[in-house]
Task: structure prediction
Amino acid sequence: MNTSNPALRPEVFREAHREAVASESTMTMQGTMVKTSALLAAVSIAAIYTWQMTFAGGNAMPWMIGGVIGGLVLGLVVSFKPKTAPMLALPYALAQGLFLGALSAVYAQRFGGPESGLVLQAVTLTFGVAFSMLALYGLRIIKVTERLKSTVLVATGGLMIFYMVSFALSFFMKSSPVASITQSTSMLSIGFSLFVVGLAAFNLLLDFDLIERGANEGAPKYMEWYGGFALLVTLVWLYIEVLRLLSKLRGRD
Result:
């Protein structure tokens, strides 16, 4: 059973396990968390740079576009070539940081600037959700069963199709029922954002489970970087959705 995160495909870990049979250095959960922390630090450094530059009068859009394109290219390479993770995971994190810093500044500007506290709330909630899901997983309060995996996969796939339809309609319609669900400040739109945040949180459970399986199966050491990269993919998604949810709630005030 695959995870919803395309970077955490089980076959990647099975192939890596075969390569690690003759190796003494294998992947561990602790090592993956260390690598994840390093990637989050890189995201933070890059995000602070574009955040400060934007509020100093710079243009956020080039950084946002550059970060998206760079992150997409690097992310695809790492996803299909896991051995490149030790070299490309950090550049990917920096690209995501440039994008997130600029995006966060744009959202903050809508609600009074840095003093609004919007971004700080989004960061706090994102890490709060992530640590909560890790605790729920580690204590086995929520067990990652095949049924849970199937449910999260189907829901995530449906959401991706929904987003693609919304994106396609934006080229032909200035406003659409789909856009009102994703972009307005209505209760329906807020409910939709709550659902997406919850779905991203449950994707973290699947990520933790697959990383643990890789560690138990003795995947090679470079897979720690790959696991950290994959977790970062979900965390970035979670942060963006939390930021959107908070902006909708602020927009109703």
The chain is about 75% helix and 0% strand. The chain has a mean pLDDT of 88. The longest helix spans residues 187-216.
